[in-house]
Each structure stands twice: as structure tokens, then as C-alpha cells.
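sry for the spam today, last one i promise. C-alpha cells for design, 239 residues
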């Protein structure tokens, strides 16, 4: 995975994004971590990039598992079941795979909620808008899987009680998670930031994202670790 890409679109977009992050932190939001997006091979090919795009998370985005969320102001909401990597120590740029593994204290399930409010065809604007990020639901961190041990995991996505997707290869749609962690560390360092202990990275949707609507429920079960869920308020409550 190439991290320090000489791509002016990425440079301009990241500078705008991180400037907005600094403004939000100055207003009192707390840093939560980072996200990757458009890491599936088809998405990267379409955008002309060679590695996932990087966005940020703050505590303002965090919602508890099982809550009901209104989509009243959303345009094209989608839900992405993801694996959250929890960092136990700082990771500098140019870290090797062993160093990256040592920095990861555990993993857990997550659902990211995004709102595709404009066409995803402009890399600079995608980054400036923080890759459509709106909310994130985090499950507990399983420290028995320190180092990002993925053996034996099965991801099941239930939509309104019916299984909508399943995978026993959680890296098939995202790429190698250790490489993703290293990529995040490299990109942040290139723009004056650092991947730090206590931060999380949501590493991309393990299956194609789900377009969601008012009145639905999405459950992501990452067996045997546990699961997270989100409900969307019925349409009648959006009036």
C-alpha cells in the first residue's frame, strides 16, 4: 500500500479536512480516531487512487449501540459494518508490520453511518468533506485479539431481522488491516499528525455498504466477538 502519494488532490483535500478537524477540536470536540474509505479495489480504480482515503472521527460522531437515530436531514444514508482497530501505543510513519501489530491492543465491531450527499467523483472534495462521515457505533474492544488477530471471525449483517450479508474473510473487501493501520500512520505523519495510543481506526466496510431507510434496523454481529446495532426512526417521526 503506497501511503505518501504525490497526488495534489489528496494533498489539498487532507489539508482542508485537517484544518476543519483542528477547528472542531478547538470548539471542544474530543479526538476519537480515524476512518478509511473507498478502499475496495473497484472504488480505488474509479477514483484513480492506489490506497484508501483517510478521514477523522471525534466524540461528536459516537452513538451508542441500539439507539434510534433520525434520518430527517440526511440525503442518501448508508451503513457500513467495519472492524475497529484500537491502538494501544503511538505508531510513527514508516513502521513495519511487526511494529504495527505491537501497537494494536485489540479489535471490535463497528458500524459507520455516512450520508452520500454529493456524487463521489472528486477526491479533493470527498476528503474535504471528511468522506461523508456522520456517526459511528463501536462495540467493546477484545484485547485477546491484540495485534489484529482475525482468525475465526465471521461477520453477519442483519437487516430488519433477516441476514443481508455474511463473510468469513473480513479483509476481502477492505484489504489487509495491518497495512491499513500503517497507511493511516504514514498519511497522518505526512500532514503533521500522528496515530496515537487510545485512538481507533474503523478500517472500511467488510461487505458492500447498505443503503438504509427510515424505520429500519441494522445489526452487525462479528462472531465470536459480539455485535452492534442501530435503528432508524420511522418515516412518520421525520415529519
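last one done:
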Amino acid at each position: 500500500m503506497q501511503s505518501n502519494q504525490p497526488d495534489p488532490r489528496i494533498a489539498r483535500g487532507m489539508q482542508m479536512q485537517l484544518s476543519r478537524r483542528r477547528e472542531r477540536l478547538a470548539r471542544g470536540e474530543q479526538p476519537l480516531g480515524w476512518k478509511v474509505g473507498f478502499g475496495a479495489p473497484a472504488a480505488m480504480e474509479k477514483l484513480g487512487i492506489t490506497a484508501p482515503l483517510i478521514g477523522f472521527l471525534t466524540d461528536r460522531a459516537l452513538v451508542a449501540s441500539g439507539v434510534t437515530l433520525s434520518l430527517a436531514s440526511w440525503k442518501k444514508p448508508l451503513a457500513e459494518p467495519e472492524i475497529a482497530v484500537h491502538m494501544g501505543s503511538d505508531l510513527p510513519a514508516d513502521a513495519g508490520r511487526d511494529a504495527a501489530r505491537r501497537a494494536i491492543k485489540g479489535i471490535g465491531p463497528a458500524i459507520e453511518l455516512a450520508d452520500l450527499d454529493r456524487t463521489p467523483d472528486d477526491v479533493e472534495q470527498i476528503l474535504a468533506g471528511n468522506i461523508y462521515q456522520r456517526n459511528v457505533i463501536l462495540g467493546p474492544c477484545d484485547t485477546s485479539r491484540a495485534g489484529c488477530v482475525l482468525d475465526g471471525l465471521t461477520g453477519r449483517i442483519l437487516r430488519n431481522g433477516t441476514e443481508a450479508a455474511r463473510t468469513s474473510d473480513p479483509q476481502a473487501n477492505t484489504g489487509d488491516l495491518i497495512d491499513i493501520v500503517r497507511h493511516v500512520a504514514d498519511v497522518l505523519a505526512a500532514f503533521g499528525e500522528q496515530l496515537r495510543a487510545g485512538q481507533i481506526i474503523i478500517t472500511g466496510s467488510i461487505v458492500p455498504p447498505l443503503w438504509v431507510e427510515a424505520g429500519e434496523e441494522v445489526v452487525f454481529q462479528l462472531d465470536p466477538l459480539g455485535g452492534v446495532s442501530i435503528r432508524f426512526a420511522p418515516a412518520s417521526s421525520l415529519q
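The helical segments are 8-26, 41-47, 97-103, 123-128, 177-190. ok im logging off now
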